[in-house]
Amino acid sequence: MQRESVQASSSDHVPIRSSTRLPTLVLLPGMDGTGDLFEPLIESLGADFKVLVVRYPEMQSLGYDDLVSYVGGLLPAKEPFVLLGESFSGPVAIKLAAASRPGLQGVILCCTFARNPRPALAWLRGLLPSVPFTWIPSTLLSWALLGSFAKGTLRSLLKEAVGRVSPSVMRARVRAVLEVDVTVELSQMRVPCLYLQASADRVVPARAATLIRSVLASVQLVRLDAPHCLLQGVPEKSADALASFVRRLGLTVS
Fold first, then answer.
1. Of 14, 110, 115, 245, which sees the most CB atoms within 10 A?
2. Rounded to an integer, what distance in angstroms lies between the CA atom of residue 242 and that of residue 17?
3. Domain 6-248: which topology?
């Protein structure tokens, strides 16, 4: 999918056309795994971007190692690409980058973590089988993920995406987050990295980015006034930030 190109700036979101396009942008989804929530971002990206949205199986429980193998088989084989890991998918992006995937030119980590971002909740692992994921009120999800940025269309998009996923799959993903630690793999990353942080994130605390920067000092951090669903809450500012990062890599595809 190719869209109108953009360039990040401190002013308005301004589309720019050019005769070349940027490397493929591979989008790895958040906890829902559907990829549907990327639509606002894709609409704000430009034609220079070729976008590949990865969608995780909705009825198959896969841990992080399984997801790394799954995503690895979908990555571009003969062209440069940049990998974006949103929230839940940050560890997937980190592990793939540490493996020095051919063609990988950079990594964008969005509101994510290298280790369980809420260690105080690790005790919940034993209770996961009894958590009624299908009964979680949409208003609570909206409060946690969208905050004051919640709009009718975004709330509906979020509700539909989460509702498509099997409760057993959601439990497996939550368990994976509670157990994850990819700090070793993070230290092995050799490609440029951008971290997009939300100032109003109610899910992933700021210390998650602090940990990542302590392990990978070269990471560039951009903080936006946004909720946990940063790419959905402020899609144009998000597009500007990631387009600016990708353009600085100095790569174009004829």
1. 110
2. 17
3. Rossmann fold (3.40.50)
